[in-house]
Specification:
alpha+beta; NADH Oxidase; four-stranded antiparallel β-sheet; 8 helices; Nitroreductase-like; oxidoreductase activity; oxidoreductase; Nitroreductase
Length: 202
């Protein structure tokens, strides 16, 4: 789909018809989404596809209000985690990408980045992760829209409870839930501030 049309047709949808989106379909979306830019190319994200009905219902206990109903009717639910152990993430990158990264680049990554990340304050870490998660999340909803799927981004959930329910490694912090699926609901365009009102030219 041409980008302008793709971008303009993406709207929040909260009513789904229950048709399943398969794990392979979600992975195909993620394969496109992870081409998103990330600071230092660290890609500090981790995804959990909540596929079983048992886990979907358990996750609903961590969600607020109508979000739980939406979660249970969606074709798929995706929980996006940030990786809070950035030095370890660098080491993972070098290990997993061993056959693709030039030797001198691997050495450079290991020499510079872990030490830099270890000096991050809690606030710096939170800001760094939030930026990167936002970038990949936008790609996810656009990639889903390109495949004819509707989506909604959910921030209204108990992160501590969600992490407990999903039992993911401690280094990963839940940031966002994306529901996706099929729907007759088209969503409506939200008001956007005019570009001239939010832009300075110096």
């Amino acid at each position: 789909m041409e980008f302008s049309k793709l971008n303009q047709s993406r709207h929040k949808v909260t009513q789904f018809d229950g048709r399943k989106v398969t794990v392979d379909e979600v992975k195909a979306i993620l394969s496109e989404a992870v081409l998103a830019p990330s600071a230092h190319n660290i890609q500090p994200w981790h995804f959990v596809i909540v596929d079983s009905q048992e886990m979907r219902l358990a996750l609903s206990t961590a969600m607020h209000g109508k979000n739980a109903v939406q979660n249970e009717a969606a074709g798929a639910t995706l929980v996006i985690f940030s990786d809070t152990d950035l030095p370890e993430r660098v080491r993972d990158m070098v290990e997993i990408g061993a056959d693709f990264l030039p030797v001198d680049h691997k050495a450079d990554l290991l020499m510079k980045l872990p030490g830099m990340f270890e000096k991050f304050t809690a606030e710096q870490l939170a800001e760094y992760l939030a930026l990167n998660i936002g970038l990949v999340s936008q790609n996810i909803v656009l990639a889903a829209n390109n495949k004819g799927l509707k989506t909604n981004l959910i921030l209204g959930f108990d992160k501590v409870k969600a992490k407990e329910v999903l039992a993911i490694e401690d280094r990963f912090q839940p940031e966002l839930i994306i529901t996706m699926g099929y729907s007759d609901e088209q969503g409506t365009a939200s008001y956007r501030l005019p570009v001239d009102d939010i832009t300075d030219v110096l």
